[in-house]
Specification:
313 residues, single chain, rod-shaped, C-type lectin domain-containing protein, Mannose-Binding Protein A, Chain A, alpha+beta, C-type_lectin-like, 8-stranded mixed sheet
């Protein structure tokens, strides 16, 4: 912009010069006219040489004034030609700035709209994140439940694998049968003969039937350390033999009549008491493992019991 300021100042200077030249031209003409009047009237006492010099000076000044007037006209015309493009350029730049200002305002409006859209998108994303978090929490709970179920299934598989081709947990294997001694489950729970048989039935078995000497020895050795009382007879276990149907005719629960008498303790069975003793009991004897039975009161005595069932394949 300094160039335009300079041109404006230059134009003002030219106009001032031209105005001075015009004033000089007018004054020169006036002087010439006045001198002419003096020359015509006889000089009013001045020498005609003086008048002649003044006339020549007037002529020179007139010529100079004319030349300056012509140059001023040219300069004026040039200044008009120069100032018009400058003004046009100024207006062009002003239009450009106004156009840019409109573009900036439009860009600002678009930026505001973009910002509002981004804020709305952010809110939607936040809502979706909360929804996904809720879904994820549900999946986490389901996963925990499935993990617990998986652990239970593994435990069941281990139990089944352990019992497949063998005895259930807590049961002892001997030959081709599995035996459950109630003492191993609870040393304090005792039942009468009928209740003990019902418990065996709930386990898919029945009270033990001792068929031979090996089984007799096995049972006696197993219950040797299963004692809960100082009274020997209270440490007995119910077995599956009784003479309830016919007194002194001892029959196993598989309907096999016991003919071997050597497994009874000395003096047993004695059917002692007014209510009778009609159910067989097995005890442990460190002196003679063959004499380990006595007869007890089926409903009155509460003892441990022994269950037996065939080995599963």
């Amino acid at each position: 912009m300094p160039t335009r300021v300079y041109k404006a100042e230059e134009s003002n200077s030219v106009h001032k010069t031209c105005s001075s030249a015009m004033e000089t031209q007018q004054k020169t003409g006036s002087v010439f006219f006045n001198n002419y009047k003096i020359f015509r009237n006889g000089g009013d006492g001045f020498n005609w040489w003086v008048i002649l010099c003044l006339g020549l000076l007037n002529a020179v000044l007139l010529i100079v004034a004319v030349v300056l007037g012509i140059n001023c006209a040219k300069v004026k015309e040039g200044s008009l030609h120069i100032s018009n493009p400058a003004v046009t350029q100024l207006f062009s730049e002003l239009d450009y700035l106004q156009s840019n200002h409109s573009d900036v305002i439009e860009a600002e409006e678009e930026a505001k709209k973009a910002l509002e859209s981004a804020i709305n998108n952010h809110k939607e994303v936040k809502v979706k994140i909360e929804q996904l978090k809720t879904v994820n929490d549900g999946y986490q709970k389901q996963m925990q439940a499935l993990q617990m179920e998986k652990a239970n299934l593994k435990s069941n598989i281990s139990t089944l694998e352990g019992s497949c081709g063998g005895c259930l947990p807590g049961w002892a294997l001997f030959n081709s049968s599995c035996y459950f001694f109630s003492y191993t489950e609870s040393s304090t729970v005792k039942k009468n003969w009928h209740q003990s048989r019902e418990d065996c039935g709930s386990r898919g078995s029945d009270l033990v039937v001792i068929d031979d000497q090996e089984e007799q020895k096995f049972v006696s050795s197993k219950i040797q350390n299963m004692k809960t009382s100082d009274q020997w007879w209270q440490n007995g276990f119910w077995i599956g033999i009784t003479d309830i149907e016919t007194e002194d005719r001892w029959v196993w629960i598989n309907n096999v009549t016991e003919v071997e008498q050597r497994y009874w303790m000395d003096g047993e069975p004695n059917d002692q008491g007014t209510n009778g003793e009609d159910c067989g009991v097995a005890v442990s004897s460190i002196f003679n493992p063959w004499k380990t039975r006595y007869d007890g009161r089926c409903n009155w005595h509460n003892l441990h019991w022994i269950c037996e069932m065939p080995l599963t394949s």
